[in-house]
Amino acid sequence: MLNPPIIVNINSLQENLKAKLKDSKLGLISSISGQELFTLILNNNEGNASLLISNIENNNTYSALTPAIPQAHWFERYLHEMFGIFPQNHPRLKSVIFNDLGIIDYPPLRSIDQNYQHNFQRDTSFLNIEGNDLYIVPVGPVHAGVIEPGHFRISCVGENIINLEIRLGFVHRGIEKRLTQIPLTSLRFYAESVSSDSSSANALANTLALEQMLELNVSERSKYLRTLAMEIERLSMHICDLGGMATDLGFNTIAMELARLRGQVFAMGDYLTGSRYLRNFIGIGGVRKDDDLYLSKIKSLIINLKPKLTKVINFFINNQNVYQRLHNVGKLSKSLACDFNMVGVAARACNIAYDTRLIYDQGIYPATILKLADESAGDALARTKVRIKEIITSIALIENVLDNIPQGTTQLANVKCLPANCIGLGIVEAFRGELIHLIFSDENGQIKRYAIKDPSFNNWTGLAISARNNLLADFPIINKSFALSYSGHDL
C-alpha cells in the first residue's frame, strides 16, 4: 500500500516547491477552507508523496507559483475560482470552470466566513488576437453527436490555426463539494460519476485512499480482480477512441468493426461486475462480485477477440492515408509536455516514460512487470500508436490475470466512519493517465475536503498548444488524438 503523504509545513511554498520538483512532479494543488495551500508532490523515484502546507495571508493572496512553475497555472486558476484565493502575478487568471452563464457570488468550496470580502471578478474573456486576414471560428459548446459540451475559440489566418482557446465548465456538477456531504457508503457512487468512462479507475482511486486512511489490506485475489476491471476498462476505451479516430479520418468500416469488437469487451465487463461500464464493483476491502464461471467466460472472449482486433488495428495503422493525415499533425514537443505536466497517452507519445502503474500500488502493480507503451514524435500519429500499444498490452495483462489469479476472500469491509484528522491518497493510472483522489478527514472523522485530479486537467493545455500552426481541417483529429474528458475536468 502507498504510504500516506509526508506532511511538510513551510514558509515559502514557491522556493520549496521548486526544490522539490527537481527530482519529483507536481501531483495537485488544493486547499481546505481557503486559509492554506496544500501542494502534493509525487516522488516517482521512491514511490511516495509529500504534502507541502503553506498559510495564505489575511488578504487571501499568495505569490503565484506559475511564473516559475508552469505546471501550476491551471491549478491556481481553479483555486481562485473555487476558494477565492488570489495568486499574485499569475500571467492570466482566467476562469476555467465558470463562464458568463454560471457566475456564483461566493467561492463554492470556501468555508463560510463572515469576514471574507468576496468582491473579486472572474475573468471570462477570450484572448484578444488581432491581425490582417485573421478570423475566428467558434466551435461548441454544443457539438454534433452525443459528446460532452465544451467551447473552442479557434483563431485562424487562412487555413492555419494561430491560437486555440478552450472554455470548459458547462457540465460542472459540484462533485468535490458533494463528496464532503454524503454518507461514507455513498462515496463510491459519486466517485464513479466523476467521468463515467473511467468509473472503475475512479472507484479504485477512491477505495485506495479510504483503505489507506483505515489502514486496511486487501487480499491478493481482490487485487487481481480490481486489475482485471481496470484493464477491461482501458481496453474498451482505447478501442472506442481508436474507432473515433477512424470515423474522423473517414474510415467508417474500420470504425464500425471496432465498435462491434468493443461489444465483446463490454460483455467482459458485464460478466465481471454485472455492469457493462464496470460500476458498483470495487469497494472498501475487496470487490462486490466474484464468480469463477464468469471468469472462464471472460477468458473465452479475450481469446476470441485478440486475433480479430489485431487484424483490424494493423490494417488501420498501416494504411498510407492514415499515416499522411496523422504524421506531424498536432505535434507537441517533449519540453513543453514536461513544462505543463502532461500525463498518460499525451505524455508517453512525447517520450516521457511515466505510467503510475510502474510506481504506485494499484491492483497487482507495480509488482507485475509492465512494458511501457511510448513513442517519441509527439504528434497525432504517435498518440494513436501509443493507444494501440496499450490495447495490445491490456489484452496480454487480462490473459495474465486470468491465468494466475489466486484463491482467497474478496468480501467488502463494513466501514461506517473514518479515523479523525487523517489523510488518504489514491493514485491510479486511468486510461487517460494519472488520476489522483486526495481525502482529508476532520476531528470527527467526517470528510472535510475531497480533491480529485482527473488526467484531463493536466492535458487540456497540451491540446491548445498542439493545435497551433496546424490546418483548421485537422483540428478534429488533433482533438480526438487527445480524447479528453469534459466532465472529469468540471468537478
Low-confidence stretches: none
Tell me the β content. Answer: 15-25%
Number of strands: 14
Structural class: alpha+beta
Mean residue pLDDT: 91
CA gyration radius, whole angstroms: 22 Å
- CATH H-tier superfamily of the largest domain: Cytochrome-c3 Hydrogenase, chain B
What is the helix tally? 15
Terminal CA distance: 27 Å
CATH structural fold name of the largest domain: Cytochrome-c3 Hydrogenase, chain B
At CATH level 2, the architecture of the largest domain is: Orthogonal Bundle
The gross shape turns out to be globular
- How are strands sequenced across the largest beta sheet? 1-4-3-2
Q: According to CATH, what is the class of the largest domain?
A: Mainly Alpha
* Biggest beta-sheet profile: 4 strands, mixed
Order of helices and strands: EHEEEEHEEEEHHHHHEEHHHHHEEEHHH
